[in-house]
């Protein structure tokens, strides 16, 4: 009912607005005296140094946070990471050698495939860490250790705040591992902690830009197909942006690694096709501008999401959304906000049942 929605039209919008607090609740208890402390990890420094590989298993949006964190664990902590869909992992007899840490990410803690993957990993002798939102859920109980995301109850089928909290938990883990293993300096850690603390206010600011995004979304209510492109972390953001849009609006959309465009997707670009381009990574910036030009030549209309200060993107793209400055590893937390709003407003404009899209369940407890 309306009271439960706290004055918002839908749970999805309410939960998007709860993100600043949820994010802060997830990092605050784990930052002490300028250090990352994750007691529930159950690993001392020696155990953290002994990790040779991380295998992340999840479904849906949780899989996307796993994809984002692959770039972060590898870039920041120099640990090789494999990310697998739980439904694939459980049937491929995965090779889990000594020193492999398995991380299972799940909002509900009840997803059947993720739970089965957890059991498979334990059977093979691996230590399993759960990143879970629902306290006392099956995955939380069966994992060797559990790190909770403090998003609070999430009602809308399309996840927003739980997704954002999973990212934060993964940032904290990567920072902890990187610091212990000596791949980041004290100074870099201190800077990252400062940037983490700024995220809630920055997310709030982006949410307050909702009218502009709504206006833009209203132009695409009849779109047949929408594309999301990015490289590196921005590719991972593209996947989540695309899923948000299609699951609630029923408009077909696809996320593509921008460098792969010319190997297929570009043939689908027609006059007026909307392409959302993500450019938050400085080292990939020029490459992304060329990808924007490629699709523009084929008639695409390009919405770009980029860092503040890059006003030159306006020369290449048709419509630009800026995100405030943050650490290069944390941009997903900001860039996802306009994409969540976009998906939401396209669905609202089309009269879709935003909180309960057809055929989808909040928690998939059957195979
Ligand atoms: C369902 C939900 C998705 C979610 C996925 C994994 O498909 O609709 O939003 O990402 O399950 O759920 P979990 O609870 O394991 O994170």
TrEMBL record:
Active-site residues per Swiss-Prot or TrEMBL entry: 362 (for fru-6p isomerization activity)
Enzyme type, top EC level: transferase
One of the GO biological process terms: protein N-linked glycosylation
GO cellular component, one term: cytosol
Repeat found in the keyword field: yes
Coiled coil: none
UniProt keywords, alphabetically: Aminotransferase, Cytoplasm, Glutamine amidotransferase, Repeat, Transferase
MF terms (GO), sorted A to Z: carbohydrate derivative binding; glutamine-fructose-6-phosphate transaminase (isomerizing) activity
E.C. number: 2.6.1.16
Chief location category: cytoplasm
Subcellular location as annotated: Cytoplasm
Reaction catalyzed: D-fructose 6-phosphate + L-glutamine = D-glucosamine 6-phosphate + L-glutamate
Key word Transport present: no
Chain's role: Catalyzes the first step in hexosamine metabolism, converting fructose-6P into glucosamine-6P using glutamine as a nitrogen source.
Oligomeric form and interacting partners: Homodimer.
Protein name, entry field: Glutamine--fructose-6-phosphate aminotransferase [isomerizing]
The species this protein was found in: Sellimonas catena
Designated gene of the protein: glmS
Shown segment, full-protein numbering: 242 to 608 of 608
């Amino acid at each position: 009912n309306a009271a439960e929605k706290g004055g918002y039209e839908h749970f999805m919008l309410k939960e998007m607005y709860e993100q600043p607090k949820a994010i802060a609740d997830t990092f605050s208890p784990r930052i002490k005296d300028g250090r990352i402390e994750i007691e529930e990890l159950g690993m001392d420094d020696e155990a953290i140094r002994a990790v040779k590989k991380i295998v992340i298993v999840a479904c849906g949006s949780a899989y996307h946070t796993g994809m984002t964190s692959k770039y972060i664990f590898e870039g920041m902590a120099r640990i090789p990471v494999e990310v697998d869909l739980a439904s694939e992992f459980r049937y491929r007899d995965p090779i889990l050698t000594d020193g492999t840490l398995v991380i299972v990410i799940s909002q509900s803690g009840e997803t059947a495939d993720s739970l089965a993957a957890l059991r498979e990993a334990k059977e093979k002798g691996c230590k399993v860490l759960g990143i879970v939102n629902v306290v006392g859920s099956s995955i939380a109980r069966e994992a060797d250790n559990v790190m909770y995301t403090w998003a609070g109850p999430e009602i809308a089928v399309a996840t927003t705040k739980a997704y954002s909290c999973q990212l934060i938990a993964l940032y904290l883990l990567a920072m902890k591992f990187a610091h212990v293993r000596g791949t980041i300096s004290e100074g870099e850690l201190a800077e990252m902690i400062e940037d983490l603390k700024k995220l809630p206010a920055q997310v709030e600011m982006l949410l307050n830009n909702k009218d502009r995004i709504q206006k833009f979304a209203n132009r695409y209510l009849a779109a047949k197909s929408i594309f999301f492109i990015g490289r590196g972390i921005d590719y991972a953001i593209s996947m989540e942006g695309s899923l948000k849009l299609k699951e609630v609006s029923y408009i077909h959309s696809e996320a593509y690694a921008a460098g792969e465009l010319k190997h297929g997707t570009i043939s689908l670009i027609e006059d007026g096709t909307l392409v959302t381009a993500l450019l938050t990574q400085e080292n990939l910036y020029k490459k992304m501008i060329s990808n924007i030009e490629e699709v523009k030549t084929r008639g695409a209309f390009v919405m770009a999401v980029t860092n503040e200060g890059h006003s030159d993107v306006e020369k290449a793209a048709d419509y630009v959304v800026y995100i405030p400055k943050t650490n290069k590893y944390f941009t997903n937390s900001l860039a996802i906000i306009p994409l969540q709003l976009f998906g939401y407003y396209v669905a609202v404009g089309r009269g879709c049942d935003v909180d309960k899209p057809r055929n989808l369940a909040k928690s998939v407890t059957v195979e």
